[in-house]
Design goal:
This protein is of the alpha/beta class and 744 residues long. The chain has twelve helices and 37 strands. Strand 15 and strand 16 form a beta hairpin. Helix 6 packs parallel to helix 7. The chain is globular, with a radius of gyration of 27 Å.
């Protein structure tokens, strides 16, 4: 029910969004490509020095026209990487937190909102081609769908050619692949089709690359990455022209198996090594290194074709129909490179310690390039051809795509939207830390510091000075170690396999207690008669919960004891849904507290806590007096008042108020409402002043209504003057650390 409610919310917000253009998104996701395998991370230097290097002209072009994120993180192995990518949850919270031969059944759940769900609900045409890794059986010759709820077609992907099980994807000449759309009545909306190039024979690719599929010696069973890439190329050609005609944007995710083992299969393709044969270093390389390099160069050629399709969708040589300036292009690997001689021959992990499957940087830091759409990124500080050390994570892409699509990110996820930083508009939210799990431990990265929790003990590294993780500083910084370990364990990284966040919704009546288990739905994740996860009882820190009024009158819930959630959203319909916290009661939304349309959170001396933020959407309100132990992003209403008049609302972090939002304060003979911000207060929008019935401020009297460590911005009132509800006029006076009203 929570998934259905959130999908309806996405549809409503997308249909009501302003008529501004939204960028297309093309996301290329490779498998096991080390951080140092792209030009700006080492290959360009190797080429200049005459050393063995990878030939990737189209990736080089993407780097020259885009931004290289030097501190970008994936996951340690295949299935967790795709689970975190798609869901926006890190491995402490997502269900598929490690590779599992049975994770075709135990994977994405029907309640998880994935990239395809969010973007298709926002009106995007969606496509997925390549290694999905969930939902199908392992059989190489006769695979079956074993979990419909985890299929790409069950999560908003409309055009699909994919392998459903990550073990079956460990070959490049699979006899069959899964495809959608499928004929009516086919299980899961996906049909099993022969893996053949027949569909594309006779068609021409773009002139930059040979039309491999037309070669007379091309195998009858196709190299599956060729099929994925040609399917993506066909989609881009078609949807680019549709975008020009209808302004309907598209999202395509090409998740190839290259350069995952086995390597030798590429030698069955005609001309597999044509780009390297004449190079002086080629004959000195091992056979494995040759195969591996050719795999990467082949997918680079496919990337070139797809980039050309963005620039000339109908292939007539006239770029008048180009959509390249309207499209965000992303290239990324799922994890670091595995340990093998081919990787070492090209220094493809860039000197980082560790490899795929390990918690060290070589296992989790991944190559990431982004080319920003020129028509959307004029104000971006990220300039073409540059590299940045901004720390980003694979979980950040889902909320980024949601913001670009004009809809909210799924509730309580771990990722943070990068859209403001990418496009130079809005307020960039900062994440406090990154979390990763691996077979040899877990880690937390906060700024330049990285703590590793392994069986052998705790290790601490300063990545800014020591990216190779050679100097363990744990014994020199015990306080920092203790602080980071506490945060790390709070992210549930020590939980057993199969632990994950669970989804719940409010079923209580007006006046019901929010701490009462009977007022919340239970959660069960099951498939084909097997229950993998069940969660009931009262709210807890692993819950993603929706408190929504679905009735015909206002509903108020009450909290008479502390409450904990991973994420909590409060939302009304035509009537309000409110939650009231009494004095001394603490409400925790570890990742997020979200106050949506027609919602009210009332503090009667209570406290709201979050590791990240309280997000007040348009139509939502936070009112009363008490403590907010989190950043506050106000796009609705914040009212500092008590039960009988003025009150103090204390924000123990930053406060950000945007256009079209309101801060409301009350003045009377007992004092005045006040917003106290311990961090920075960023002001915009409106200020509203209520004056008590029997109170008349004398001219010249002053009322401090905002104090902060620093105040930036201002409310939008002409001449810095405002008229209260009773007609009293005030002048608004700003200083570096407070806002004062002066009665006139």
């Amino acid at each position: 029910m929570l998934r259905i409610a959130l999908l309806f919310l996405f549809l409503a917000l997308a249909s009501n969004a302003p008529g501004e253009a939204r960028p297309n998104i093309l996301y290329v996701y490779v498998d096991d490509m080390g951080w140092g395998a792209i030009g700006p991370n080492g290959q360009a230097e190797r080429k200049a020095a005459g050393m063995p290097h990878l030939i990737t002209p189209h990736l080089d072009r993407l780097a020259a026209e885009g931004v290289n994120f030097r501190r970008s993180y994936g996951c340690t192995v295949c299935s967790p990487a795709r689970s975190s990518q798609q869901s926006g949850f890190h491995q402490g919270h997502t269900f598929a937190d490690r590779n599992d031969p049975d994770n075709a059944k135990k994977a994405m759940r029907s309640d998880d909102l994935l990239m395809g769900d969010v973007l298709s609900s926002a009106g995007y045409v969606t496509g997925y081609w390549g290694k999905w890794g969930f939902g199908g059986s392992r059989s190489q010759t006769d695979p079956e769908i074993v979990n419909v709820q985890t299929l790409p077609t069950s999560h908003g992907y409309q055009h699909v050619v994919a392998e459903l099980h990550h073990v079956r994807a460990h070959t490049f000449f699979q006899p069959t692949l899964w495809r959608a759309p499928a004929p009516p009545g086919v299980k899961g909306g996906m049909e099993l089709v022969p893996n053949s190039m027949a569909r594309w024979r006779g068609q021409s690719a773009y002139p930059e690359e040979p039309a491999w599929q037309n070669h007379s010696r091309y195998p009858d069973t196709a190299y599956c990455d060729d099929v994925y890439a040609f399917s993506a190329l066909e989609f881009v050609r078609r949807q680019a022209l549709d975008y020009l005609a209808t302004a309907q944007p598209f999202f395509g995710l090409l998740a190839v198996q290259v350069p995952h083992a086995p390597f030798a299969e590429i030698a069955q393709l005609p001309g597999w090594d044509r780009d390297y044969r004449a190079l002086p270093f080629w004959d000195s390389l091992s056979v494995q290194a040759r195969h591996w390099a050719a795999m990467i160069t082949r997918i680079d050629g496919h990337l070139g074709n797809i980039l050309a399709a963005l620039e000339d969708p109908n292939g007539d040589g006239d770029p008048a129909d180009s959509v390249a300036d309207d499209t965000l292009v992303i290239f990324q690997s799922d994890n670091g490179g595995p340990q093998h001689p081919a990787r070492e021959a090209f220094a493809a992990n860039g000197g980082l310690k560790g490899e795929k499957g390990k918690i060290q940087e070589g296992g989790i830091r991944v190559p990431t390039l982004m080319r920003l759409p020129a028509n959307f990124a004029a104000d971006s500080d990220l300039k073409p051809g540059t590299s940045t050390d901004q720390v980003i994570d694979v979980t950040d892409l889902l909320p980024t795509f949601a913001e670009l699509a004009g809809v909210p990110a799924p509730l309580g996820i771990d990722g943070v939207s990068l859209a403001p930083a990418l496009f130079g508009s809005g307020h960039q939210r900062l994440r406090q830390f990154l979390i990763h799990e691996a077979g040899n431990g877990q880690s937390i990265i906060r700024g330049e510091w990285k703590l590793i929790r392994a069986k052998s003990g705790l290790e601490l590294y300063h990545l800014g000075k020591d990216p190779g993780e050679t100097n363990d500083l744990a014994s020199a910084r015990p306080g920092l170690v203790e602080e980071l370990e506490l945060l790390l364990l709070g992210e549930r990284v020590a939980e057993p396999k199969g632990f994950a966040n669970t989804y719940h919704h409010w079923v209580g009546r007006d006046g019901a207690m929010a701490s009462d288990a009977s007022n919340w739905s239970d959660y069960i994740y099951a498939n084909e008669g097997i229950t993998y996860l069940k969660d009931d009882g009262a709210p807890q820190i692993s819950w993603t919960a929706l408190m929504e009024n679905t009735g015909s009158s206002p509903v108020q819930a009450r909290a008479n004891s502390d409450l904990e959630f991973l994420g909590l959203e409060i939302r009304g319909n035509t009537h309000t849904q409110s939650l009231r916290l009494g004095r001394g009661i603490n409400l925790t939304g570890r990742n997020e507290m979200r106050l949506s349309e027609k919602s009210v959170l009332v503090l009667d001396g209570g406290k709201v806590s979050s590791q990240r933020w309280v997000d007040i959407a348009p139509g939502g309100a936070l009112i009363g007096s008490g403590i907010v132990q989190a950043k506050v992003y106000n796009a609705g209403v914040v009212a500092a008042s008590g039960k009988t008049g003025p009150g103090k609302l204390q924000v123990q972090a930053d406060y950000v108020q945007v256009d079209h939002s309101t801060l409301r304060v009350v003045l009377n003979e007992n004092g005045n409402g006040r917003l106290v911000v311990e961090g920075e207060a960023t002001l915009a929008g409106a200020l509203e002043v209520d004056v008590g019935d029997h109170f008349r401020p004398t001219p010249g009297s002053r009322f401090t209504i905002v104090t902060a460590h620093a105040v930036t911005g201002a409310f939008h009132h002409a001449g810095n003057r405002i008229v209260a509800g009773d007609g009293t006029r005030f002048r608004i006076l700003y200083s570096d650390a407070k806002v004062t009203l002066i009665a006139e």
